[in-house]
Amino acid sequence: MTRLQDRVVVITGGGSGVGKASAGLFLKHGAKVVIAGRDASKLSKAKEELLADVSSSQGTGITDRLRCVPTDVTKPQDCQY
Predict the structure, then answer these.
(1) Is the pLDDT of residue 81 over 90?
(2) DSSP secondary structure letters along 13-71
(3) 80 conformational bin, left if phi > 0, alpha if psi -120 to 50, beta if neither
């Protein structure tokens, strides 16, 4: 499915739970996804799991569409680009 191809989705709290599940769904629909959260190791683990899950159904190329950004959205300095 490519309903969301070339769209970018940013998910805070993407390391687990609803955020991680949402990231997987957006990836399956072709979006580029950024998952953000405070715990870098949790984000890394979530990325590995998402890549394994989605690549099994979509093949290669998925790694270019998923990024992790360790950040705390309650801190303005973490949210500046």
Answers:
(1) no
(2) TTTSHHHHHHHHHHHHTT-EEEEEES-HHHHHHHHHHHHHHHHHHH-TTGGGGEEEEE-
(3) beta
* CA–CA dist 53, 25 (Å, integer): 10
Amino acid code (one letter) for 21: A
Label residue 39 left, alpha or beta by phi (over 0 means left) and psi (-120 to 50 means alpha).
beta
Neighbours of 76 (CB within 10 A): 8
Please give the Cα distance from 67 to 14 (Å, whole number).
11
pLDDT value, residue 60: 62
CA-CA distance, 56 to 13, in Å (whole number)? 24
Q: What is the pTM of this model?
A: 0.86
